[in-house]
């Protein structure tokens, strides 16, 4: 019996799987640590390079944080709102991400960045690739908390067929290796209520960024 239990990976591609309910055992601690992060680095709507507000509210923890503004997409060590370093990645976050990656076969994974995404009813995230990181040999680890959402998992080209699968509270998706640069996204969140997060879906995305 390990710290994080799971029925085993549900493979959706050779290098991509869903670990159902993997994060649920630690939901209280994750939620408590998340509150501390957003007290220090509050939720905000970043701007695209074109000047539009991004619908998903974001924050970061860890050595590097993903930011978007008129200057483009990038990772940086300081929160642009405060000018000080992003909050330290809590041990609860880090150990969950490392355990999930290992379960998916990525035993070297040590994240230096965690992007926090907050979805309200109607919020979506269009198909995109994660390619602002230095090293594509390391996977993406994505933790879902709160309301369920429909995850879109496409191919390496935008026009490739897209798999749709529902992600529930506690589910963790890991994609790497040949699938690291697959397009992905989230359909508009349906309204609802979750005992932990209320009207929200929270996503934690762990990466090796720099
Ligand atoms: Mn992404």
UniProtKB/TrEMBL annotation:
Positions of 2-oxoglutarate binding: 117-119, 201-207
InterPro entries: Alkb, AlkB-like, AlkB-like_sf, Oxoglu/Fe-dep_dioxygenase_dom
Matches recorded under PROSITE patterns: FE2OG_OXY
Cofactor stoichiometry and binding remark: Binds 1 Fe(2+) ion per subunit.
Entry keywords, A to Z: Dioxygenase, Iron, Metal-binding, Oxidoreductase
Cofactor(s) of this protein: Fe(2+)
Name of the protein: DNA-N1-methyladenine dioxygenase
Gene Ontology CC, one term: cytoplasm
Pfam families: 2OG-FeII_Oxy_2
Organism for this UniProt entry: Methylobacillus rhizosphaerae
Domain Fe2OG dioxygenase: 110-210
Binding site for substrate: 66, 73-75, 132, 158
SUPFAM superfamilies recorded: Clavaminate synthase-like
NCBIfam families on file: PRK15401.1 (NF011930)
Gene Ontology biological process: oxidative RNA demethylation
MF term (GO), any: oxidative RNA demethylase activity
Keyword Iron appears in the UniProt entry: yes
Amino acids binding Fe cation: 128, 130, 184
């Amino acid at each position: 019996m390990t710290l994080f239990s799971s029925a085993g990976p549900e493979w959706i591609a050779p290098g991509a799987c869903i670990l159902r309910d993997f994060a649920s055992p630690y939901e209280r601690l994750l939620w408590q640590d998340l509150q501390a992060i957003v007290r220090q680095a509050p939720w905000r709507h970043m701007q695209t390079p074109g000047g539009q507000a991004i619908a998903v509210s974001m924050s970061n923890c860890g050595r590097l944080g993903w930011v978007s503004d008129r200057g483009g997409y990038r990772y940086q060590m300081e929160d642009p709102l405060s000018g000080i370093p992003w909050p330290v990645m809590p041990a609860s976050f880090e150990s969950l991400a490392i355990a999930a990656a290992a379960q998916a076969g990525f035993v070297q994974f040590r994240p230096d960045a965690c992007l926090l995404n907050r979805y309200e009813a109607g919020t979506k995230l269009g198909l995109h690739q994660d390619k602002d990181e230095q090293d594509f040999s390391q996977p993406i680890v994505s933790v879902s908390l709160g309301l369920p959402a429909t995850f879109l998992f496409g191919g390496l080209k935008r026009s490739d067929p897209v798999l749709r699968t529902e992600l529930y509270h506690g589910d963790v998706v890991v994609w790497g290796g040949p699938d690291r640069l697959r397009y992905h996204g989230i359909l508009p969140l349906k309204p609802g209520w979750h005992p932990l997060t209320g009207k929200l879906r929270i996503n934690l995305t762990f990466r090796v960024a720099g």
